[in-house]
Design a protein that fits this description.
A six-stranded mixed sheet has the order 2-4-1-5-6-7, sandwiched between helices. The protein has a three-stranded mixed sheet with strand order 3-9-8, with helices on both faces. It has 366 residues and is of the alpha/beta class. Helix 1 runs parallel beside helix 8 and helix 4 packs antiparallel against helix 5. It is built from 14 helices and twelve strands.
């Protein structure tokens, strides 16, 4: 469905270690040298959601099926990537295809792990990557602006509408600001999206700290947290080394015991996944019955027929109505029948906006 996050950063910051732990695989080779990840590795991960287990338990379904996010491990970027340095062209091509950016920043000192810039400075590293992405966007727009201006001058209505958006975006990029900072009206939003700019994508900064700092962070991660707050982006603290250890443990009890010994309530990966979900502005609705209880993903603001279409295109084409129960009502009434008896089931039509946690049954006619 295109709900994917690209894991990016300089070489040797812990991207592949994080990806391996996220997907519980060794699909991405984590090695102590630049460019160990040559092709993007893709992994699907279940989104942690305690509500699904509650729905599953109340209904007594035979199967519990979570919703998933896709993570893409992208080759490390270096200074000059926008001009083709390192694996720049591959990096930029792969990152254009993702919906959001998970930017891993090294926030630990370790003489045994080389740093491409020789010293540890996560703010500098973040600015290096952001600069290369802005330069790539700038080059892309500068190639397109002159033909667009000519079309606008000749009276092309589409070009006239697009030109002011592109001009404001170019001005921001030339001023060293990412495209996501450009103000645009609701009417201009589709035009802005059509520019397909890398720096328009939302960013989640992931601070990879040493094991001793996993619970509280350190001075490196504190600086990143301040930067994230100032720029309105997301921020998560993890220790990739700990996540790799947790991924090796076989049972949930072993994982919980290990995390507790470190003063951690949950894995950093769970926070990364949930933050990625929020970054993409997604909501979850549920379907439930004897065979399965399942979580589904739609973008916030989606209408009921769009939600039905995530299950099957026929559901959207022949949509009649959605029998809907709010999650809290479903739990309080102990299931569908209790909600019906209490008058908590609603019949929603085509204009209904799906709310996070809705339990839905779609009626349709093909």
């Amino acid at each position: 469905m295109g709900f994917n996050c690209g894991i990016v950063g300089l070489p040797n910051v812990g991207k592949s270690t994080l990806f391996n732990a996220l997907t519980d695989t060794a699909a991405a080779e984590a090695a102590n040298y630049p460019f160990c990840t040559i092709e993007p590795n893709v992994g699907r991960v279940a989104v942690p959601d305690t509500r699904l287990r509650e729905v599953f338990t109340i209904t007594g379904s035979a199967q519990e099926v979570p919703t998933y996010l896709e993570f893409v491990d992208i080759a490390g970027l270096v200074r000059g990537a926008s001009q083709g340095e390192g694996l720049g062209n591959q990096f930029l091509g792969h990152i254009r295809s993702v919906a959001a950016i998970v930017h891993v920043l090294r926030c630990f000192d370790d003489g045994n792990v080389t740093h491409v810039e020789e010293t540890v400075d996560p703010i500098r590293d973040a600015e290096t990557v952001e600069t290369e992405l802005m330069l790539a966007d700038l080059e892309s727009l500068e190639r397109r602006i002159e033909p667009l201006e000519k079309r606008a001058t000749s009276g092309d209505k589409e070009a006239k509408a697009s030109l002011p958006v592109m001009q404001r975006t170019l001005a921001a990029l030339r001023d060293g600001k990412p495209a996501r900072t450009v103000e645009r009206s609701d009417d201009e939003a589709p035009i802005f999206r059509s520019l397909q700019l890398i720096t328009a994508k939302p960013v989640l900064y992931v601070c990879n700290v040493d094991e001793d700092s996993a619970a509280t962070g350190n001075e490196f991660s504190a600086r990143v947290a301040a930067m994230a707050e100032e720029t309105g982006q997301g921020y998560v603290l993890i220790s990739a080394a700990i996540e790799a250890e947790v991924a090796e443990l076989e049972t949930e009890d072993e994982k919980a015991e290990y995390l507790e010994s470190l003063g951690l309530a949950e894995t950093g990966l769970a926070r990364v996944i949930r933050a990625g979900y929020a970054l993409l502005d997604l909501v979850t609705f549920f379907t439930t019955g004897p065979n399965e209880s399942r979580a589904w993903t739609v973008r916030r603001g989606s209408k009921a027929p769009q939600a039905a279409g995530t299950i099957h295109t026929d559901f959207q084409k022949g949509f009649i109505r959605a029998e809907t129960i709010a999650y809290d009502d479903f739990v309080a009434c102990q299931g569908e029948q209790g909600a019906k008896d209490s008058g908590k089931m609603r019949l929603e039509g085509k204009e209904y906006t799906v709310q996070d946690g809705d339990i839905m049954l779609f009626r349709f006619n093909v």
